[in-house]
Specification:
The complex is a heterodimer of chains A (about 325) and B (about 675). Chain A is mostly helical and about 325 residues long. Helix content of chain A is about 70%, strand content about 0%. In chain A, about 60% of the residues are buried. The chains are: A mainly alpha (about 325), B mainly alpha (about 675).
Chain lengths: ~325, ~675
C-alpha cells in the first residue's frame, strides 16, 4: 500500500511538472507583454504551439544524422528525469535517492551536451555559433552551480535534495550569509541556463547574439516540440529548485496526508506565480548583455558560490 | 601465483625478441599482436583473481637477478593487483586493436619488437618490490615507449618529441633514484619492505614527496612537468598512444601511491595541500589547452593531463585526510582516485583507438579536415559518442561516477582542522568543477567537429569503416565504460582491497545496498544509482518517442538545411576548430595564455582578403622551460673550453674528484 502510494505521488509529481511547465512559460510571456503594454499571446498559447508542432511533418536537413533525430527525445528525457528528482509540492519522492543535486546538475549537462551536438550536426554556421556560445556559457554556469550545490550540501549535511529541503524546513536552517550568496548565484545561473535576459533573449530569432535559438534553428515539427517542451520543463525545474531550497513553506513532509498534499500543491502553484512575476518584471527592466560581457556575470556567480563554500569551510554556522 | 605472473611477463619479453627474428615475415604483425593479446589476457585474468582473493595478504618472490647482494624482489598485494588489472586490460584491448590497426603500419619492424617489451615492463614496475628492480623496469618502460614514439622517425616533429621525452624520462628516473636513496638511507637496504619498516624522519619524508612528485609526476604528466606528454603521446602509433595515455600514466600514479603512501612514512598535513594544488592546476591548464588544440591526438593527450590532475587532486585529498586520521574520508578519496584511474584507462584508450581509426580512414589528424564521419564510419561513431559522454563526466557513464565520489570527498573536508586545507580544498573544488564543465565543452567540440557536420576535406568524405578487430576493441572498452557507470558499487567493492592496502581503511560495502545504489558516507545519506538513472532516461525517451510517433506525426522529409534562409553558402561556412574555441579562448585564454586575435582589414578599394590571426603562448614552456633551455645552452658555451684541455689537466680533475668524494665520505661517517 505504502509502495503504491509512493509511486502514485512520484507519478503525480512528474505529470504535474509536465502539465504546468508550458503554463509557466505562457504566464511569464503574458506578464511580460502586459508590462510592456502589449496584449500578448493567450496564457495557453504554449500548449497550442506544442500541439501544432507535434502534428506537423518534420523537415530534416540533408546532412542530419541519427543523432539529430534522437537528440530531442534524449534532451527531453534527461531534463524530465532531472525535474523528477526535484521536490515540488512534497518532499517524500520515491526515487529521490537515485540521484542527488550533483546528479541533477550533470543531467542538465547531458541535455546541453546533446543539444550542442545537435546544433553542430547539420553543418551550418548558425548551429556552430549557438553551440560554441552555449558551451562557453555552460563552462562558467555549471561550475557555479556545483559550488552552489556544495554550499547547500555543507549547510544541510547531505547533497540529497530531499534532505536539503527538509533541513531548510526545520528550525535549524536559520538565516545564513552563505545561503544568501548561494541564492544570488543560483538566480544568475538559472537566468543563464534558461536563456533568459540578460544572457540570451528567448523571444528573438535572427540576431547575431542569440545562443539557444541558433542551436535549434534546423529543428522542426515534433522534434522542435520536444526541445521546446524540454526548455519549459527546465525553467520550471529551476523555479522549483529555488522554491524548495529557499522557500520550502508548506512542502508536504514524508508520509503526509491528503490534506497536506493538497496544501502543498496550492502553495507550489502560488510559488510558481510569484517566481514567474519576478522573472517577468526583471526581464522587462533589464537589457541584454553583449556575449563577451557574460563571462563577467557568470564569473561573479562562480565567485559567489566559491565564497559561500569558503564561508562554510571556515564555520559551519555562517 | 606470482611465479605464473612472472612467467607470463617473461614470455612477453621473449615475444619481443621473437619479433626481431620474425620481422620480415608477413605474418609477424598478426603473430606478435595475437601473442600479446593471449598473454595479457592471461595476466589480466590472474590479476583479477588475485585482486578478488588476496584481501590484505601478499605473494612474494625473489629471483637471483639484479644486484648480487640484493636480488630481485617481487611482491603482489591488492594495490599491485589492481594496477595490473588496469594495465593488462588496456594492453589486451590495444593488442586486439592492433591486430587490425597494425596492418597500416608503414614500418612494422620499428613497432613489433618494442610493443611486448613495453607491456612487460609496465607489469614489472607494478610487481617490483625493491628499488633496483623497480627502477630497472621503469627505465625499460621509458626506453621501450621512447622507441615506440620514434616509430615514425622520419618526421622531424617526432624526433624532437622523442628527444624531449627521453630527457624528461631520465630526469624523472633520476628523481626517483634519489628518492629511493633517501628512503634506504645510509644502511642501503633497497627492498621496499626494509624502507617501509625504517619510518624516515619528517624532513626525509618531505624530500621524498618532492622527488616522487618530480619522478612520478613527470611520467604522469602533472603540470608543470607535462610538456613532453602532448608531443610524445600523439607521435606514437595510435595503439601505443592509447597505452601511454591509458596505462603508462597509471603506472606513474601507482609509483606515486607506493612511494608516498607506503614508503615515505606518516604524511604531514601540507603534503595533501601540495598535491591538491598541483592536481587542480593540471586539471584546468590541461583541459584549456585541449580545448584550443586542433590536432585530435594531441587534444586527447592534453585531456590526459586534465584527468591525471583529477586523480592527483583526489590523492591529495586522501593524503590530507590520512594525515588527520580521518580513515573513512581517506578511503573515499582514494577510491575516487583509483576508480578514476580505471575509468580514464577505459575511455582514453577508446578515444585514442578511435582517433587511430579516423587517422587510417582519412589520413587526417586535424579537426579542420574531418567532419561528417557519423555517416561514413557508422559503427565507430556510436562507441566514440559513449566515450565522449564518459570523459565529459555525464551520467550514467563511468566518468561521472568517479567524479561524483571526488565531490563527495570534498564535501567531507570542512572537518579538516588546518586552515591551509580549509581554504585550498574549496578552491580546488572550483577548479575541478570548472574542469568538468570545460571537458564537456572540449568533447562537444571534438565529437561535433570530427563526426558531425559536413566533411571538411575530400579525404573525410571518402572515409570508410575501419576493420573488425579494431572495432571489437573499441566497442568492448566503450561497453565497459557504460557498465562501470551503471554498477559503480561493484567497482568500488572490487577496488576496496587496493584502497585498504594504501590508506588502511575502506569504504562501506556497496553491493549489499538495495537497488545497487551507492552511498559513500552513511552519515550524509547522499546516494547515486547509475542503473536507475539510466533506466529512467531510456524509459522516458522511448515512451515519449513511441507516443509521439503513434499519436502525433511520424512524417519526415529531407531538404536543404534551412540556416535562416541563407541557402547553402558552402562547407567552409561551418564552424571550424578555431572558431568553436574562440569564445572560451577569449573568456579564459586572455589571462592565462595571452591569447589574442588580430584582424587585418585591407584598405578600402584593395582586393586583398581580410585575415584573422590568433596567437597564444604556452605559459609553462615560455615561463619555465625556455629560460632553462637558454641557461643550459649558455652554460654549455661557457664550459666548452673543458673539451680542449691537456691530458695532465684531465688527470688532475679526476684526482680532485676522488679527493672530494673521499672527503664527503669522511665527513658523512
Amino acid at each position: 500500500m505504502a509502495l503504491i502510494r509512493a509511486i502514485a505521488i512520484q507519478g503525480l509529481e512528474m505529470l504535474l511538472v509536465l502539465a504546468l511547465a508550458p503554463l509557466l512559460t505562457g504566464y511569464v510571456r503574458k506578464l511580460k507583454a502586459r508590462l510592456q503594454r502589449r496584449a500578448g499571446p493567450p496564457l495557453l498559447q504554449p500548449y497550442r504551439d506544442l500541439r501544432r508542432l507535434l502534428g506537423k511533418e518534420v523537415v530534416l536537413a540533408d546532412n542530419a544524422s541519427w543523432l539529430f533525430r534522437s537528440a530531442p527525445y534524449l534532451i527531453f528525457a534527461t531534463t524530465w528525469v532531472a525535474a523528477a528528482l526535484v521536490p515540488t509540492f512534497g518532499a517524500g519522492l520515491m526515487f529521490s535517492w537515485s540521484g542527488d543535486l550533483i546528479v541533477i546538475t550533470a543531467l542538465l549537462g547531458s541535455a546541453r551536451f546533446f543539444l550542442a551536438l545537435a546544433g553542430l550536426d547539420a553543418g551550418t554556421s548558425f548551429g556552430g555559433i549557438g553551440a560554441s556560445r552555449e558551451v562557453m556559457i555552460a563552462s562558467l554556469g555549471e561550475p557555479a552551480l556545483i559550488m552552489i550545490v556544495f554550499t547547500l550540501a555543507l549547510v544541510a549535511g547531505s547533497s540529497q535534495l530531499s534532505h536539503v529541503a527538509l533541513f531548510m524546513l526545520s528550525a535549524a536552517a536559520g538565516l545564513r550569509v552563505s545561503l544568501a550568496l548561494a541564492l544570488f548565484a543560483l538566480v544568475i545561473v538559472a537566468l543563464a541556463e534558461n536563456s533568459r535576459i540578460p544572457v540570451d533573449n528567448p523571444a528573438t530569432h535572427l540576431e547575431l547574439t542569440m545562443v539557444h535559438e541558433a542551436m535549434v534553428l534546423e529543428y522542426s515539427g515534433r522534434h522542435l516540440a520536444m526541445i521546446e517542451l524540454a526548455g519549459f520543463v527546465q525553467l520550471l525545474l529551476y523555479v522549483s529548485l529555488i522554491a524548495c531550497v529557499f522557500a520550502p513553506f508548506l512542502l508536504a513532509p514524508v508520509q503526509a496526508g491528503a490534506a497536506a498534499y493538497a496544501l502543498g500543491i496550492a502553495a507550489y502553484v502560488a510559488k510558481l506565480a510569484v517566481a514567474g512575476a519576478l522573472l517577468a518584471a526583471f526581464e522587462t527592466a533589464t537589457a541584454k548583455m553583449r556575449v563577451f560581457r557574460l563571462p563577467n556575470l557568470l564569473g561573479a556567480a562562480l565567485m559567489l558560490g566559491l565564497l559561500a563554500t569558503l564561508l562554510l569551510f571556515v564555520s559551519r554556522t555562517l | 601465483m606470482i611465479a605464473a605472473l612472472l612467467a607470463l611477463i617473461a614470455s612477453l619479453l621473449v615475444l619481443g625478441l621473437a619479433a626481431i627474428a620474425a620481422r620480415r615475415s608477413p605474418l609477424a604483425t598478426k603473430l606478435v599482436y595475437g601473442g600479446a593479446l593471449a598473454l595479457t589476457l592471461a595476466l589480466l585474468a590472474l590479476a583479477a583473481v588475485m585482486l578478488a582473493s588476496l584481501g590484505q595478504g601478499a605473494r612474494e618472490a625473489a629471483l637471483p637477478l639484479g644486484l648480487p647482494w640484493l636480488g630481485a624482489h617481487f611482491r603482489l598485494d591488492a594495490l599491485a593487483a589492481f594496477f595490473l588489472v588496469v594495465i593488462d586490460l588496456a594492453a589486451a584491448a590495444a593488442s586486439l586493436y592492433a591486430i587490425g590497426y597494425g596492418a597500416h603500419e608503414p614500418e612494422p619492424q620499428r613497432v613489433l619488437p618494442f610493443f611486448p617489451v613495453f607491456l612487460a615492463a609496465m607489469n614489472l614496475v607494478v610487481l617490483a618490490a625493491d628499488a633496483y628492480s623497480f627502477l630497472f623496469a621503469w627505465e625499460l618502460m621509458s626506453l621501450a615507449s621512447w622507441a615506440l614514439v620514434l616509430a615514425q622517425h622520419r618526421e622531424a616533429e617526432n624526433v624532437a618529441a622523442g628527444t624531449l621525452y627521453l630527457l624528461m624520462a631520465s630526469f624523472g628516473t633520476l628523481a626517483l633514484l634519489l628518492g629511493f636513496g633517501f628512503l634506504a638511507g645510509a644502511g642501503g637496504d633497497y627492498s621496499f619492505a626494509a624502507m617501509a619498516a625504517r619510518r624516515p624522519a619528517p624532513w626525509v619524508g618531505a624530500l621524498v614527496l618532492a622527488l616522487a612528485l618530480l619522478g612520478a609526476g613527470s611520467k604522469a604528466g602533472l603540470v608543470p612537468l607535462h610538456v613532453w606528454l602532448p608531443r610524445a603521446h600523439p607521435a606514437a602509433p595510435s595503439h601505443v598512444s592509447a597505452l601511454m595515455s591509458g596505462a603508462m600514466t597509471k603506472v606513474a600514479v601507482y609509483a606515486f601511491i607506493r612511494i608516498v603512501f607506503q614508503l615515505a612514512g606518516p604524511p604531514a598535513w601540507w603534503w595533501g595541500l601540495v598535491v591538491l594544488a598541483l592536481g587542480g592546476v593540471s586539471v584546468v591548464l590541461g583541459v584549456l589547452q585541449a580545448l584550443m588544440e586542433t590536432d585530435i591526438k594531441r587534444l586527447l593527450a592534453y585531456s590526459t593531463i586534465e584527468n591525471i590532475g583529477l586523480i592527483f587532486a583526489s590523492l591529495g585529498l586522501a593524503l590530507a585526510f590520512r594525515a588527520d586520521a580521518m580513515g573513512a574520508a581517506a578511503a573515499l578519496a582514494m577510491t575516487a582516485a583509483l576508480f578514476h584511474a580505471f575509468n580514464h584507462m577505459l575511455f582514453k584508450s577508446t578515444l585514442f583507438f578511435g582517433a587511430g581509426a579516423v587517422l587510417t580512414a582519412t589520413g587526417a589528424r586535424e579537426l579542420d579536415r574531418l567532419g561528417g564521419l557519423i555517416h561514413r564510419m557508422r559503427s565507430l561513431a556510436v562507441p566514440m559518442l559513449g566515450a565522449c559522454l564518459a570523459i565529459a563526466a555525464l551520467p550514467p557513464f563511468n566518468g561521472f561516477a568517479s567524479e561524483w565520489l571526488t565531490f563527495q570527498a570534498i564535501l567531507l573536508s570542512p572537518d579538516l582542522p588546518q586552515w591551509g586545507l580549509k581554504l585550498a580544498v574549496p578552491a580546488t573544488g572550483t577548479l575541478l568543477a570548472l574542469g568538468a564543465a570545460l571537458a564537456a565543452a572540449c568533447f562537444v567540440r571534438f565529437y561535433g567537429l570530427a563526426f558531425l557536420g559536413r566533411p571538411r576535406s575530400p579525404a573525410a568524405s571518402a572515409a570508410v569503416e575501419t576493420d573488425r578487430a579494431s572495432l571489437a576493441a573499441i566497442w568492448g572498452l566503450a561497453a565497459l565504460c557504460l557498465l562501470a557507470g551503471l554498477f559503480p558499487g561493484a567497482v568500488i567493492d572490487a577496488i576496496a582491497p587496493a584502497v585498504q592496502a594504501s590508506v588502511a581503511a575502506r569504504m562501506p560495502l556497496q553491493t549489499g545496498l538495495p537497488w545497487l545504489t551507492i552511498i559513500p558516507v552513511a552519515a550524509s545519506r547522499s546516494s547515486y544509482n547509475g542503473i536507475l538513472i539510466f533506466l529512467f532516461i531510456t524509459a522516458s525517451a522511448l515512451t515519449v518517442a513511441a507516443a509521439v510517433h503513434r499519436f502525433a506525426s511520424r512524417a519526415a522529409r529531407r531538404y536543404r538545411a534551412w540556416d535562416c534562409g541563407f541557402g547553402d553558402v558552402g562547407i567552409g561556412a561551418q564552424y571550424s576548430a578555431a572558431s568553436f574555441a574562440q569564445p572560451i579562448r577569449r573568456a579564459f585564454g586572455t589571462a592565462i595564455f595571452r591569447a589574442s586575435d588580430v584582424v587585418e582589414m585591407p584598405p578600402p578599394g584593395s582586393t586583398a582578403p581580410a585575415r584573422i590571426r590568433h596567437s597564444r603562448i604556452d605559459p609553462v614552456w615560455d615561463g619555465l622551460y625556455a629560460p632553462l633551455v637558454g641557461f643550459v645552452w649558455r652554460l654549455a658555451d661557457r664550459l666548452n673550453f673543458l673539451q680542449f684541455l691537456s691530458i695532465r689537466r684531465f688527470m688532475s680533475f679526476v684526482f680532485l674528484a676522488l679527493v672530494f668524494l673521499l672527503l664527503v665520505l669522511a665527513v658523512w661517517h
